[in-house]
């Protein structure tokens, strides 16, 4: 442990000025509406859709319930092809809907579900594909759509990491049947906890809104066994405020990513992910691969070494979801079937990144990695 320096964690939440939030709290106290599509909920839903450049968006209390609801919205059953290289909630959402997850390998360049591997995993039971825009890097959007169209499958993107990502000026949330976001405290944009589903027509939005509110379609009629997944007024007020500051937060993240790239450029065996062409990025994470043969040390060694210097990286995503005891019995989860995901999961390390991360801290992290001791 390094007693001279304060700990540097992998992330820290972005918080707006407290006085500004207090003003919103006063309004909540006055109007006494705490939840159930209150005024802040309605305003935030509109403003967020506008900010993100999407037409239909439904707010949720967290991303996991939004994923579970997205699958119910489209009545997905049978098997869904997904990635093992994600946060476990992606696969859990399938399990909560009695759907069999089928894992397929990822691409070596961007660590997203490989469309060719996904296509090869299709069976007569497959009803949908659920890729994840890992670290905010867009999946192969057109190729996935082509596969979905050819085989008559639904396409649901887990866009939990993909706040405000655009490809050639167009939001990636406009692709697929549905996209699901998370506004968890650790994300680029947070509402303490929160989430959203983006869809492309009014009828689907209505169904999503019914599902997140116990299945009520009006005061006296319940048409589906929906759940309670509504975003409350405190979260929505936080979201409205956060929207004022998110551009600046994303800009700072971009600068930090640039500093890491420059600082680590000549370190043999530490590989940064390339910026993808035409992509406006939000840099939610700063992942690097540690190549043991070139760097001389394993990822776990580097992870422990950073800890000794009071620097806390995270091994996102290790273990693979397919290695957890809950899922490792599945046929698609058997070792050796997803060599790229297995290698990346063993080599990946996410370095600290958040808007307030100071330049001296970045330099310290880079110098520990350069020295390797
Ligand atoms: C890829 C991915 N999917 C889903 C989730 C779940 O979102 P939430 O924490 O808002 O429930 C997360 C993170 O938390 C995530 O990283």
End-to-end C-alpha gap:
13 Å
Query: How many β-strands, per DSSP?
Result: 15
Largest sheet: 7 strands, mixed
| Largest sheet strand order | 1-9-8-5-4-2-3
In sequence order, what are the helices and strands, one letter per element? HHEHEHEHEHEEEEEHEEHEEEHHHEH
Beta-strand percentage range:
15-25%
Count of alpha/pi helices: 12
Structural class: alpha/beta
Give the uncertain stretches in residue-range form: none
Q: What small molecules accompany the polymer chains? A: pyridoxal-5'-phosphate
Radius of gyration: 21 Å
Residue-averaged pLDDT: 97
What's the SSE blueprint?
Blueprint (H helix, E strand, L loop, with lengths): L17 H14 L7 H14 L3 E5 L2 H11 L5 E4 L6 H7 L4 E4 L11 H6 L5 E5 L10 H11 L2 E5 L7 E2 L2 E2 L6 E5 L12 E5 L2 H10 L4 E3 L2 E2 L10 H32 L5 E3 L6 E2 L5 E5 L1 H4 L3 H10 L30 H9 E4 L7 H13 L2
Parallel strand pairs: 2-3, 2-4, 4-5, 5-8
Antiparallel strand pairs: 1-9, 6-7, 6-13, 8-9, 10-11, 12-14, 14-15
The structure holds pyridoxal-5'-phosphate (PLP).
The site of pyridoxal-5'-phosphate has 15 residues, from helix 3 and helix 4.
Give structural notes.
The protein has helices spanning about 20-30, 40-50, 65-75, 90-95, 115-120, 140-150, 200-210, 235-265, 290-295, 300-310, 340-345, 360-370; strands at about 55-60, 80, 100-105, 125-130, 155-160, 165, 170, 180, 195-200, 215-220, 220, 270, 280, 285-290, 350. The chain has about 375 residues and is α/β, with parallel strands linked by helices. Helix 4 (about 90-95) links the parallel strand 2 (about 80) and strand 3 (about 100-105). Helix 3 (about 65-75) packs across helix 4 and helix 8 crosses helix 12. The two termini are about 15 Å apart.
